[in-house]
Amino acid sequence: MENNKPSEHDITEVVAQQSAANPSENGVMMVINHSKVDPPFSVMWSTVLYCAEFICASVLISSYHKNEDVVWMGLTITFMLVPSVLTQLTLTFVHRDLGRDRPLVLLMHLLQMGPIIRCIEALVVYCQAGKKEEPYVTISRKIKLKHGKGLGPAFECEIGHSERKLAVHRNAFKRTAVIQAFLGSAPQLTLQLYATIQEKYILPTRLALMIISLISIIYGALVCSVLAIQIKYDDYKVRMKPAAYLCMILWRGLEIATRITTLVLFSSALRVWVILVGLTNLFFFFFQPWVEFWARKASLPDNIENNFSKLGTTVVLCMVTFLYACINIFCWSAVQLDLADHDLVEKQPRWRRLAIYYTVRFIENVTLIVLWYYFKTDFYVYVCTPLLVVQLIVCYSLAVLFMLLFHQFCHPCRRLFHYNVEDCLRCACCWRKKQSELPADHADGPQDHAPPDLTNHLTGRETDILDDIMEAA
């Protein structure tokens, strides 16, 4: 006998069509969304990176122990265990396991295998999703983006228990990916590259660990960039295209690889001075959010965690600020801290900071490379050092170029910018043209020249965007 009962997908389409024909009073389209849940690929990828780096580091530590390299072994153990312990604490804190009776999960965390059990839990939730009807937990309201513009009314989707649980797992692993990348993988890669230069030979295990660490750092930087986009454009349904991810990988990969190589080369020639460079960067980026916080005379955010006192909140903020400083030592963090906000993130990032950061970082990298060139050791006598200097400068310039290309052509919300890279260049060229024509105008008589309006040629674009947003509001 044929079953004529409509499927869940059909119900979704019928409700969406009826809602589009009869929108609610506030112009929001109601959609009952029981579509299939997306697989937790980010959770699995983070777990694979964590396990691969932990195993490679363990094998390399065993090799150091056999060769009695106590210094390299101790530092490798430190950069392996410290981020691993912080990862276990983060996952335990996010899932609130300390107040629940889960002895097996807590044991796995004590054995530094917390990401594995969390990944298994996420896969179990994904496999069980959609097998039985479940009430929704909350409703998500978003505006669809088409060709970079907000199009049509906002739509609401019901979020079920399974999707909610998977969202918690994804958010937890995003945090652990950033911690693992910049508190573990970045120092580990720097250490192993420095050890390779000092010992003048490459171990296969060490090379594998450096490759995995570099992939982990790039992934952590990608998470920061995507998180910054999602925070700023929280009202829109943002989807990244493959071209955007490719551009971001090239941008972040060149930036991080060039930065770490520069620091390692400089440390091989001026070992003591690299400590000063590192501490200067760390202290500057650590105290920058606190100085802005004190300058505004703001107060600590409430309800970061209900059980936290003022002291506990301050400790958490210091740990977040420390992570923020470590990220900015190696690459642009993309997310700006606001310690007075409940979410701890500035909702309106400043483009001026981006320009200042890359300008200062470029000057710093060039200075370190030039100093290394003049104080290098005899180890580099068989290396074409001028070519290496040029390559590092060109690679960092290419990283900046890919960053500009991403914001100009690949950013999912580039049409919502008040001005873009092309607009700034066009306005700068127009301003220079007016400056060159200024003496000729003065020959006819004195005239008042107003400063160039950076947003004058964007009036039509902003009007269209404003109309779309007003229709969706």
From TrEMBL:
InterPro entries: XK-rel, XK-related_adapter. It is found in: Membrane. It is a multi-pass membrane protein. Residues 439-459 are annotated as: Disordered. One of its GO terms (cellular component) is plasma membrane. The chain crosses the membrane at residues 43-64, 70-94, 207-231, 273-291, 311-335, 355-374, 380-406. It holds the Pfam family XK-related. Belongs to the XK family. PANTHER family: MEMBRANE TRANSPORT PROTEIN XK FAMILY MEMBER, XK-RELATED PROTEIN 2. This is XK-related protein. It comes from Anabarilius grahami.
